[in-house]
Amino acid sequence: MLWVSLKELTRLIDGGQELTLDTIESTFNNNPFLEHVRDKDVDSKRDPLIKCNDSFTKLWDSDISSKQSDKLVSDWVYRLIGNDEAVRRVIEISIEEIQKIVSHTGSDANSSLEKTFLDVGVLRFPDIANPYIRVYHIQLTAWAECRKVYIYARRNSNGVDGEYHMREYKPREKVIEGLAKDLQMIAISEGEKLIQELVRISDTASPVN
């Protein structure tokens, strides 16, 4: 079931096509074995996290401010993506890099910095506990800007923008029914083989006097 979509995605990549959320979603929607669970769709885009600081000194670089900034960023990102551990593991390293930029204080007046840390799709494979397929698309962009406002003062603006999308797919009921029938036939066949083997062993066994 899943390999149909993976094969198509591989073909698109080999052809040089960019895998956008629309492309990935279309590929899975066209898979005849999968059904899109639309009521599970998530499209989250939080208001940008923005911090500004006007100061004659580098108060923003203090240890306390840095820790507060780091927590502010991580809390904001986790509210964006929710509690899915699979996604959190993917973005842990990126959060650390984003924290550095959001905590950044420009050393030069009229300077700016922007970096997109995540623009990725994440595929969660089904298992026994979670018998469904999930496709994620996450984009996180951090930026920092320093502008001179007075002779000895500057304004530091820092922030992060983010988008989070999730699509869930499950096997179509007809596919599950077909698999169930196939498994029943296999079980019956294996059971018949086992009975035949037991009968054979019984027939060839020496009688007990």
Automatic annotation (TrEMBL):
It comes from the Eukaryota. This is Uncharacterized protein. It comes from Candolleomyces aberdarensis.
